[in-house]
Amino acid sequence: MSVSTEPRELGLSILGLGTQYPPYSLDARALEVLSKRYHPESPAMQKVLAINRYTGIDKRSSIGRPDHWLVNQPEPPTISQIHDVFMSDGVPLAISASKKALAEAHVDDISQITHMVSTTCTDSANPGYDHFVAKSLGLSTSVEKVLLHGVGCSGGLAALRTAANLCLGHSMRGLPARILVLALEISTTLVRSELDSIHQDQETRIGICLFSDCASAVVLSNDIPFSATEPIPPPVYSLLDWRHQTIPDTESDLGFDTHTQGWKVVLSPRVPNLTASVLEPTYNSLLSGKLLPEGYDSPKDFDWAMHPGGATILTGAEKVLGIQPEHMRASYDTYVNHGNSSSATIFSVLNRLREKEMDGVTPGGRGPKEMVVGCAFGPGITVEMCLLKRNLSRTEGGARKGMETPPEMESSSEEGELGSEEGSDVVDGEQEGGKGKDKKAEEFIEKALESVELD
User: Fold this and answer.
1) In a domain, 422, yes or no
2) CA gap 39, 37 in Å, rounded
3) Which CATH number fits the domain that encloses residue 37?
4) Domain Chalcone/stilbene synthase C-terminal spans what residues (predicted)?
5) Considering the domain boundaries, does residue 414 fall inside one?
6) Residue 438 needs a FRET pair 20 to 30 A away by CA distance; which of 28, 84, 338, 430 works?
7) Mean of the per-residue pLDDT values for the chain?
8) What is the pTM of this model?
9) DSSP secondary-structure letter at 309?
10) Alpha helices in 291-396 (DSSP H)
11) pLDDT (tens digit, 9 = 90+) per residue, 335-361?
């Protein structure tokens, strides 16, 4: 049976998005500072540091600098200490990202939020962090909450898929649904533990070169208004369909193992080839039987919001799908300027994709596309893929919403708690919309393609 791709066919709309990165950025030399401070030179350490200089990442967003107290103890921090910093520095990021998404979605009455679907792979306490975010936002105690764990980098789209099914359930019951979908990851606190593993086991562990900190959120809605006098705002994106797939027998290739010092990244050299192998069949399944608008005949006819798990993930996608870096312009931009923030990254990519700077660097200058494919990979290895329709004509006060600067919210970290280290070559990061972003957007493809193969 053919399925139309009209945006209201499922009645699922992303009404608002919000991203909040922490106020600090780490350049490639930040890792060298801690490595030299706590470990002697060794073949494995030197190899990892060499890879670290050529990931294609300019800055990795972080809750602190290399002189943060957590990573400057005699031993790597315990999982309890990591949790404490996740709560003190991470949860405020999640609150800020949520407020941005709620503001854009015009959720003026917080009681209209019916569900909350959250994810993280960098904390596991009970109650989960979502409980404290909901409490801070003033959500009703009857809000239905779901916290996903064990889904890693694919968590953002897994949470969106879960929220979509909840939305459809409410639609079947004739009830309105407004779901806050939230992802929060604080991974830079694991640096000492990873350095210890590199030193002790002489393993080439490149996760330490890629991961960063971020919170991001979206508000998903079904098409049932709360009242006739409160129309639903036009969507930023319409969610049209999704697919979930697991690559058999790949549990040992990509994961995040529990450890007394937090978690240990599992990342085998097979990952880029494995993820590339499943892209085309998942895309074909997603698009099968759909009546697409004219001009959408192959992957290159869409814009792509690909989770930037690493340089080889993106370049591998280009090869198998026959697309150019500009198709994934927001993915490269996010990767270069912030790194890989695990589950929180995909919403950040979707948020960045609809901004004016990204519309200026499309393939061949053809302009942005309405139809967008989102994709992320997680441990297992799992792939999450979705089909979205971007609302290019969304306006508010005569201006395209996607061209506006998102509202700024409070920062998550207090600079007084973080010292400074002369000569550390680690600089304060710029918040979204900060000075120099336009220039970054124009140069991101050139910088991204300077990266080397990590496998």
Assistant:
1) no
2) 6
3) 3.40.47.10
4) 245-389
5) no
6) 28
7) 86
8) 0.86
9) S
10) 311-321, 329-338, 345-353, 356-359
11) 999 999 999 999 999 999 999 999 999
Residue 1 counted as domain residue: no
Q: Amino acid identity, residue 190?
A: L
What crossing angle do the helices spanning 29-38 and 191-201 adopt, rounded to 10°? 60
Amino acid in position 143: V
Torsion angles phi and psi, residue 18, rounded to 5: -150, 135
Residues 6+ apart with CB under 8 A from 34: 66, 71, 191, 192, 195
Residues assigned a catalytic role: 153
Q: Is the pLDDT of residue 5 over 60?
A: no
Whole-angstrom distance, CA of residue 385 vs CA of residue 287: 11
Residue of 341, 387, 300 lying closest to 10 (CA atoms): 387
CA angle 269–272–41, rounded 5-degree value: 40
The structure tokens 């991204």 sit at 448
Radius of gyration of the chain (CA): 21
Domain count for the chain: 1
Is residue 288 within 8 Å of 351, Cβ to Cβ? Answer: no
Which two tokens mark 297?
């005949």
**Closest to 381 (Cα-Cα) out of 236, 302, 287, 279:** 279
Containing domain of residue 352, as a range? 8-407+440-448
Cα(122)–Cα(184) distance, integer angstroms: 8
- Beta-strand pair 115-119/178-185: parallel
Q: How far is CA 410 from CA 89, 169, 323, in A?
A: 12, 35, 38
Beta strands in 346-416 (DSSP E): 371-378, 382-390, 395-396, 399-400
Residues belonging to the chain = 455
395-396 and 399-400: which strand pairing? antiparallel
Tell me if 455 is assigned to some domain: no
Q: How confident is the model at residue 443 (pLDDT cuts 50, 70, 90)?
A: low
C-beta of residue 304 within 8 angstroms of C-beta of residue 17: no
Distance from C-alpha of 135 to C-alpha of 276, rounded to nearest angstrom = 41
